[in-house]
Amino acid sequence: MALTPAPYGSWPSPLDPARVAEHAGGPEYLGAVGEELWWTASRPAEEGRRALLRLRPGASRPESVLPPPWNVRNRVLEYGGLPWAGAPRSSGGPLLVFTHFADQRLYRFAPDGPEEPAPLTPEPAIPHGLRWADPVVHAERGEVWCVLEEFTGPHPTDVRRVPVAVPLDGSAAGDRAAVRELGDDRHRFVTGPRLSPDGGQAVWLAWDHPRMPWDGTELKIAEVSAAGRFTGVRTLAGGPGEAVAQVEWAADGSLLAVTDRTGWWNLHRVDPVTGSAVNLCPRKEEFAGALWKIGMRWFAPLADSLIAVLHGRGELRLGILDPVTGELTDAPGPWTEWAPALAVRGTRVTGAAASPSRFREVVQLDTRTGHVLVAAEEHRDVVDPAYLPRPAARTFTGPDGRDIHAAVYPPRHPERTAPPGELPPYVVWAHGGPTGRAPQVLDLQIAFFTSRGIGVVQVDYGGSTGYGREYRERLREQWGIVDVEDCAAVARALADEGTADPGRLAVRGGSAGGWTTAASLTSPATAGLYACGTIAYPVLDLAGWSDGGTHDFESRYLDSLIGPPAEVPRRYRERSPLYRAHSLSTPFVLLQGLEDAVCPPAQSESFLRAVPPALPHAYLTFEGEQHGFRKATTVKRALEAELSLYLQVFGIDRDDVPELELRP
User: Fold this and answer.
1) What region, left, alpha or beta, does residue 229 occupy, with left being phi > 0 and alpha being psi -120 to 50 degrees?
2) CA dihedral defined by 324, 327, 333, 336, rounded to 10 degrees?
3) Are the C-beta atoms of residues 456 and 427 closer than 8 Å to each other?
4) ∠ CA 147-558-583, rounded to 5°
5) Within the chain, how many helices (H) and strands (E) appear?
6) In sequence order, what E strands does 113-242 have?
7) Strands (E), 262-335
8) Phi and psi for 634 in degrees, rounded to 5?
9) Which residues of the chain register pLDDT less than 50?
10) Are 646 and 662 in contact (CB under 8 A)?
């Protein structure tokens, strides 16, 4: 078929904003309950709630465990953590424990029985002041062990975290004192404790301000007394310069942990007595990532001593590791990115996996036969795949000759091509975190733009995970410099090589990516590079954000990203987009959730007051949205606004997009 010439950005696309919004999110927090598989799934059309699904043995489709408005999600660390746990029973079906987002309480539920969910924890005196995450059901003890995040005052940093045991009989539903604290709160942050197979010891991770968990954590071990309390707590591994990302007991009682002591997150066997560690598969690859949510699981021991692991550079593939020989065999199939939530049962390993051409699916590997199958959430094309982009992994050269990793998504359409000599507009996407990365998976928000003739490039700027500790620490005290420089270097390289139109470059991002976007638009070093930008739920004022303006988890993050505020106070003002907003000359749209506790609306409102009065811009706010957008209506409106900005600034005509009012 002959292609019809049409200007970039004007191409017709079957990916309307509503269709994109329908497919936001995917399976998360997957686990095994006996022979069943359970996971949470996003429901954008249901006000963004997280549903809990179960797949019974032999079933072809999962079923919903809880009807609306039950929302299986918590607010621990504000980003949430593992929100459910289950245990098989000899009769009456499985027992479920979960957190409900509306009140943050922990509930007990037998989905095969007649009763409704019953609370296990009390109503807090402070709204949402008691939060629970990373639960493990110990039915033989009559308890569920988890992390308690307890607010003790009105400020976001008035909080303590401690491993606890919650009675399964409901006796703590009206009595906070019935929640048994397993240890003390000497550490600011903890993960859920894991009990050894013989019941005699427990392990968990802990860290303190100003460290983030990718800076340094401690692997703690304790004896478990007859009364079920932790005694003789000591540190086995980790410290200020060593980040242990996950710890688990194997079935034979050996202790496994992922630590970056070699400069890469590798899997080690740790001696529970001495703390000495043996690297089971020494590689310059990552076997873990940034611990943003308590309960993330990058490896899982199998009963036959093999270990299911996620590993790679710039991606996470599923492999099966023989800890004796160090041999690592990857699972077959098209999946290139696996989520850190592995479930094991017998010889089967199940996870949530995706690729640049497939949505996230529930995929199961039988390690005995090597057979792989899609167990649930099977990918189905929502449009002709010819409209979907094909990303190219690239390594660009930045300042001082440093490598910059990125994925380039060129425009793609089965029936349109550009007129001769026209170069496409490109949008630089800066990921959040900033300690994170942009996985190369099928994302309809990217396809929304590329199918219309607007290219996208996702930049894993210095500071991103996936490339070792040295790459991750390039951002130390350089936030607002290295990330801005790396995004700019990629944009300029695409323009210089003739891939992108140098006059039609944009930058966009949310959260930390919103910071990088705003910093890029206000930095003298990138003046004139970008024609416009989309800023979503951003950090804009460093001093205000760190001084009680955000949640506890990230309240000292800037000590490493910028420097200790008492030592470099001028740096906090000099780098903040807020204090450079008066010189802003680039049109932008600013998107903000009104219930955002991580980057509150006050940041955006202060920035807008400093913007030049005549500058074209738009500010869209969304009721009921926290940090990141979950509702279908919000995703749809945000996409329409972003596209309209690009059409107006890039001079592209089309009549199927509501026009965003850009007003001075």
Assistant:
1) beta
2) 100
3) yes
4) 135
5) 10, 40
6) 118-119, 130-138, 143-151, 159-167, 180-181, 189-190, 194-195, 201-207, 218-224, 230-238
7) 266-270, 277-279, 299-301, 307-311, 317-321, 328-330
8) -70, -50
9) none
10) no
Residues 6+ apart with CB under 8 A from 69: 47, 49, 102
- Rounded Cα distance, 571 and 240, in Å: 24
458 sits in which H/E element: strand 455-460
> Token pair of 328, please?
């690592």
- Alpha carbons 460 and 490: distance in angstroms, whole number: 10
In angstroms, the CA 456 to CA 389 distance is 9
Could you tell me if 568 and 634 are in contact, meaning their C-beta atoms sit under 8 angstroms apart?
no
What is the SS3 assignment for 577?
helix
Q: What is the pLDDT of residue 17?
A: 94
Q: Which amino acid is at 1?
A: M
116: left (phi over 0), alpha (psi -120 to 50) or beta: beta
Round to whole Å and give the CA distance between 318 and 331.
6
Cα distance between residue 589 and residue 536, in whole Å: 8
The residue written with tokens 């009104």 in the block is 594
- The strand pairing partners of 586, in sequence order, are none
Helix axes 482-496 and 512-522, enclosed angle (nearest 10): 70
**Which pLDDT belongs to residue 287?**
98
**Residue 268 is encoded by which pair of tokens?**
């080690």
Instruction: Measure the CA–CA gap between 481 and 617, rounded to whole angstroms.
Output: 25
Q: What is the pLDDT of residue 215?
A: 98
Q: At 425, is the secondary structure helix, strand, or coil? A: coil
Please tell me the distance from the alpha carbon of residue 548 to that of residue 542, in angstroms, as a whole number: 11
Largest pairwise CA distance in the chain = 78
* Contact indicator for 436, 485 with CB cutoff of 8 Å: no
pLDDT score, position 24: 80
Residue type at position 155: H
Reading the block at residue 446, the tokens are 């990217």
Distance CA 99, CA 79 (A): 14
Residue 416: the pLDDT is 96
As given in the structure block, the two tokens for residue 505 are 């470059």
Sort 172 into a burial class: Cβ within 10 Å, 0-12 / 13-18 / 19+.
Answer: buried
pLDDT tens per residue, range 246-269: 999 999 999 999 999 999 999 999
Strand 426-430 and strand 505-510: the pairing is parallel
Name, in order, each residue with C-beta under 8 angstroms of 340's C-beta and a sequence gap of 6 or more. 288, 289, 296, 297, 298, 310, 316
The SS3 assignment for 70 reads coil
Residues near 55 by Cβ (< 8 Å), separated by ≥ 6? 36, 37, 38, 61, 62, 63, 362, 375, 376
The torsion defined by the Cα of 315, 316, 319 and 325, in degrees rounded to 10, comes to 80
Residue 517 has φ and ψ, to the nearest 5°, of: -65, -50
Query: What pLDDT score does 184 carry?
Result: 87
What single letter denotes the amino acid at residue 524? Answer: P
Q: Could you tell me the two tokens for 520?
A: 């890029």
- Please name the amino acid found at residue 376: A
Confirm if 490 and 459 have CB atoms less than 8 A apart: yes
pLDDT of residue 547: 82
Scored b (16 or more CB within 10 A) or e, 99-133 reads bbbebbbbbbbebeeeeebebbbbebeeebbbbbb
Burial 221-232 (b: 16+ CB within 10 A, else e): bbebeeebebee
Q: How many CA atoms lie within 13 A of 230 on its CB side?
A: 24
Instruction: Please name the residue that has the structure tokens 């489709």.
Output: 61
SS3 (DSSP) at 298: coil
Q: Which H or E element spans position 491?
A: helix 482-496
Cα 551 from Cα 379, distance rounded (Å) = 37
Inter-residue contact 299 to 246 (CB < 8 Å): yes
The alpha-carbon radius of gyration of the chain (Å, integer) is 25
